[in-house]
């Protein structure tokens, strides 16, 4: 019991430290950090659903915008033997935290080469690898429409046919932005939503509300169609995740 308590306290202390780090980086550059707190467990689980759906298969996985590793920590135990995870995170202070996470995570003992961390934006990622699953933590609402389109096109280029992209957006943020943002920012946000809606109409295969997150979020799954298979019907759910 004492060992469990010590381990539990260590995890809580780590998450507390990561929360403060995330807040500091958000204050430093909200455009690239995108939030003031890491993703909660429910959101992390929803974003990694496509990996669990392929359990038992070796997968190529890409996580973009991993931050302090809140989703990474949920993702790693889902990886089947023979899987490979690339992480693209532009913030060097976050990548230092991610290196520590991957070098100390018990599920990676003896399998460190399964994970590679790249200190760069996903649109600048130089790789010939194609991915079965892409998990995105990038703050699309903070980008320009052109940047969002460039990132989404890069995601689709990196996906295998039949591969899945999972990304999220915070619920209720449109109303908050309308009240707090300038007119120019409001127009930019609306244009970003229009760009994302275009991709959703063409590729979306799932959409779920995650209420148990601060703030609540909506997770989208987009699937790269195979040459002979049309995009499946969109699955939605409003229940808590």
Average residue-wise pLDDT: 83
Number of strands: 8
Which structural class is indicated by helix and strand composition?
alpha/beta
What's the alpha carbon Rg, rounded to whole Å? 18 Å
Shape: globular
- Share of residues in strands: 15-25%
Characterization of the model:
The chain is of the alpha/beta class and 241 residues long. It has a single domain, classed as 3-Layer(aba) Sandwich (Rossmann fold). The chain has 9 helices and 8 strands. The protein has helices spanning 2-28, 30-33, 41-47, 49-52, 70-75, 92-104, 145-158, 173-180, 183-203; strands at 60-64, 84-88, 115-118, 131-136, 159-170, 204-210, 217-223, 235-237. An 8-stranded mixed beta sheet has the order 3-2-1-4-5-7-6-8. Strand 1, helix 5 (70-75) and strand 2 (84-88) form a beta-alpha-beta unit. Helix 7 (145-158) runs parallel beside helix 9. The longest helix is centred in the first third of the chain and has 27 residues, at 2-28. The radius of gyration is 18 Å and the shape is globular.
Short description:
This protein is an alpha/beta fold and 241 residues long.
Topology overview:
Elements (H helix, E strand, L loop, with lengths): L1 H27 L1 H4 L7 H7 L1 H4 L7 E5 L5 H6 L8 E5 L3 H13 L10 E4 L12 E6 L8 H14 E12 L2 H8 L2 H21 E7 L6 E7 L11 E3 L4
Parallel strand pairs: 1-2, 1-4, 2-3, 4-5, 6-8
Antiparallel strand pairs: 5-7, 6-7
Helix pairs in contact: 7-9
Highlighted features:
9 helices; eight-stranded mixed β-sheet; 241 residues; alpha/beta; Rossmann fold
